[in-house]
Amino acid sequence: MSNSQAPAVGIVMGSDSDWPVMREAAEALREFDVPFEADVVSAHRMPHEMISYGAEAAGRGLKAVIAGAGGAAHLPGMLASVTTLPVIGVPVPLKYLDGMDSLLSIVQMPAGVPVATVAVGAARNAGLLAVRMLAAHDPELADRMAAFQEDLRKQAHAKGERLRR
Ligand code: RP5
């Protein structure tokens, strides 16, 4: 899946069964008009393609990779080991262990090979974090992120107002 412009963010996941979670990252990128691609790149079932994806990501013009996986979730860390791009890991919760296995597999990286890990199932935050990464070099995108944050502030304030009445 992709949109018409050259993708700036790659969203990859270990299985299409991760998509119901990972689509939230795509939605966040769409809200900010950030072009992205999405694909299944399994660390265990297609290791050679996974390494190629990571090794070629920067050269293809991607600026960040969002990688989601569940269980023995090695995809984000393995991609981080073969690319210089920032990798954002999304622990996908599966039927057992409530996603703790996915979280620990992704977050506990060895020194020198960082993965920016979001909360279990928090693919939307992964998308928003990728937007912030791009916004660091894009003032127009930074303005839109600031407006988004101002909306969040207003919404939170309004919720408090209802309680204060
Ligand atoms: C992981 O195994 C995938 O990321 C997915 O979360 C999990 C289960 O995959 P399927 O058996 O549903 O394809 O590698």
From TrEMBL:
InterPro entries linked: PurE_ClassI, PurE_dom, PurE_prokaryotes
Catalytic activity: 5-carboxyamino-1-(5-phospho-D-ribosyl)imidazole + H(+) = 5-amino-1-(5-phospho-D-ribosyl)imidazole-4-carboxylate
Entry keywords, A to Z: Isomerase, Purine biosynthesis
Pathway: Purine metabolism; IMP biosynthesis via de novo pathway; 5-amino-1-(5-phospho-D-ribosyl)imidazole-4-carboxylate from 5-amino-1-(5-phospho-D-ribosyl)imidazole (N5-CAIR route): step 2/2
Binding-site residues, substrate: 15, 18, 45
Molecular function, one GO term: 5-(carboxyamino)imidazole ribonucleotide mutase activity
EC number: 5.4.99.18
Basic and acidic residues: bias regions: 156-165
GO biological process: 'de novo' IMP biosynthetic process
PurE domain location: 7-156
Pfam families for the chain: AIRC
Primary role: Catalyzes the conversion of N5-carboxyaminoimidazole ribonucleotide (N5-CAIR) to 4-carboxy-5-aminoimidazole ribonucleotide (CAIR).
Similarity remark: Belongs to the AIR carboxylase family. Class I subfamily.
UniProt-recorded name of the protein: N5-carboxyaminoimidazole ribonucleotide mutase
